[in-house]
Amino acid sequence: MTRFTPLWAQSGTYVAGVDRRLIGALWPAPASVGGAVTAQSGMSVQAAPGQVAVPVADGTGSMLCVWDAPEVVTLGPAPPSGTNRIDLVVCQLLAGPDVDSAAAFTVSGVAGTAAASPVAPATPANAAALAQIRVHGGAAAIAPADITDVRPFGLALSGGAARAPLGASDPFTWFDDPSGERWVAKGGVAGGVWRRAKDALSCKVYRNAAFTAPTGGARFPYDTAVPSRDAYGMFDPTGRVLCPCPGNYHVRARWLLAFGAVGQFLNFNLTMGGDAQTFVKDYNSVSSGMAGWFGVEVSGYMRVTVGGATDAISTWGNASVAGLASIAGSEDRCNMYVQYVGRNPA
């Protein structure tokens, strides 16, 4: 039996294999952050700056490969028409242990075999695959759609970079990292990458069509989402906002009406989960001092415990007289803004 000196308790210098044991303990399988492969001109692709942990085939641990500028890889000529080929882009170790040289690894291509129905080649020993490239027969260039991302991810221990982006059709999902930060992603939004919920999860809606305020109390529905302010599809066509995950949300709403006489008023409040007045969260009112346009605003923090239709956020109003017309038609008039601000307290 060999009992090794604890890492970093050594005096003087020691062989790199000691640190490879640490890297291998953290990442015993391939892992990466960055290194996305994209199409360039002709048969060239490039891997963005990144880091890849590559396990050493002899079982002595893993090596951490880092590059800080794009690595260009030129693939071989396309096969004849009627056949296709799948190539790999890999990060591969080239030198043995304890070699102090940047030439100890490369980002390069591995050619597949041309066939009518090609399959990807096996990833070589001492390598981690970053992308599969479909090379069409007779093609003169690689198109973005020909590239399939197969990076292992997981090199970042927390945060959005710790997980692979979602596929184009994947639904909204979320997770909390060890620090308590919430991350969200949805297929087709920002390339499916994970983003901080506090930075990305928000929605602004407004009333575009004409609307007459009711006297008996009813939902004041919104009918339009501002496209640039609803990336994750929180707007519900029934006129509400659906929060896709639990959490604490800040809500701000306003409504403009044309009052016809002195003393007319509107009660206006936020509701959650339904239209019943028992779901009132915050309340405000406006009373006219003359005929003309008057607006009312209400804001507050709303604790969403489930999300979706169960905790749908909307506005409710009750006008003093029938026939009061809303001043609609613009996102700056009758609107509501909902922003995720943090997790619910335990």
Separation, N- and C-terminal Cα atoms: 48 Å
In round numbers, the mean pLDDT is 85
What about the largest sheet? 7 strands, antiparallel
By CATH, the architecture of the largest domain is named Sandwich
The CATH class label of the largest domain is Mainly Beta
In total, the number of domains comes to 2
Strand content: 35-45%
Tally the helices.
Answer: 2
Q: What do we call the CATH topology of the largest domain?
A: Jelly Rolls
Shape: elongated
Give, in order, the helices and strands.
Answer: HEEEEEEEEEEEEEHEEEEEEEEEEEEE
Extract low-pLDDT stretches: none
Q: Tell me which oligomeric state these chains represent.
A: single chain
Q: Would you count the extended β strands for me?
A: 26
Helix content: under 10%
Secondary structure class reads: mainly beta
> In angstroms, what is the radius of gyration?
29 Å
Defining key terms:
mainly beta, Jelly Rolls, 4-stranded antiparallel β-sheet
List the SSEs and their pairings.
Layout: H1 17-26, E1 31-34, E2 37-39, E3 44-47, E4 50-55, E5 62-67, E6 71-74, E7 84-93, E8 105-110, E9 127-136, E10 147-149, E11 173-176, E12 182-185, E13 195-196, H2 197-200, E14 202-206, E15 212-213, E16 218-219, E17 224-225, E18 235-236, E19 240-241, E20 247-259, E21 265-272, E22 280-287, E23 292-304, E24 313-319, E25 324-326, E26 335-342
Antiparallel strand pairs: 1-4, 2-3, 3-6, 4-5, 7-8, 7-9, 9-10, 11-12, 12-13, 14-17, 14-26, 15-25, 16-24, 18-19, 20-23, 20-25, 20-26, 21-22, 21-24
